[in-house]
Amino acid sequence: MFADVAITGAFDAAETGLITAQGPDGAVFVAGRPASPQIVWAVDGVRPAAIAEHVTGPVTALAADRANLYIGVGGTVSAYSRVTGNVVHSWAANGMPGAVAQLVVAGNRLWALYAVSGDGLAGAPGGLVEIDPAAAAPVRTISQLTGVFSIAPGSVGVYYVTKQSSQLVEQTNDGRSVSKPTRQHVDLELSGPSAIQAIAVVDGRVVLQHNAGQGLDAVLNTYDATTLAGPSASIPFSAAEELTSTPSGTFVIGDSDTNVCASSEQTCVRRFSLAAGNLGAALALPTLSVASALTGPYPAVVVAVDSDLHVVRIS
What we know:
The chain is an all-beta fold. It is 0% helix and 50% strand.
């Protein structure tokens, strides 16, 4: 484990819940404090942390490929060249509710999830937008999606769960839509209609997280990414944990309450197996404030030390 060059004095105090993304080359992008303009930082592990863009925020989502950095602000997604820093395209999804909540790159497409802020478990309809980064207009929009708060990117499309957690859907980059029942019982009163969410694709399996609605209780189930057959047997998990799949393995971040860490440690990263659960020894992060979710393709997390940020890469 090592920490990249710090983003020094980026905030007034230690921050959590920051919006981050990582490109396929390992460069990590971090949205700074909401301001006008708002800074998006870049840390590539080679040069000192640098300003990638100034944007009119607040930034609600980030994603990156080798060519572009994609930034969601309100209902608009913009592509910025990673070479020149100039805006290449902007896409406004007219008629989509809420704001851009998540951006993912799946093969040769960018997908944007729109959600209504603060609607919690009520399941207010959101939507998806499929974007060809080389085109001036979105490829297609998918509206009236209920209870979708996470999409999982695969190699040729995205996966999500909708219809009160009863339906697993794959939307492919060539325009196909495939759906199968999740075949899981959901206590709608206790867990809510959005209890099950797609969180990752690991070794040809779509991973769904089912939060029970009782404290941190949760389980993972997997489905075949091609046929959507499933579910697998339940894998114990925690609603407070975060799972990330990378080419170097699957990792989970959590704390002593979720059994990822020993009781004396605040927050840890551990290797994770869908067959066996937690693997090996936990790696304690060198700070009390985890500022972002664990990102891939190279496992990394942004941690806060007072007003500074550090990108911690895990090997």
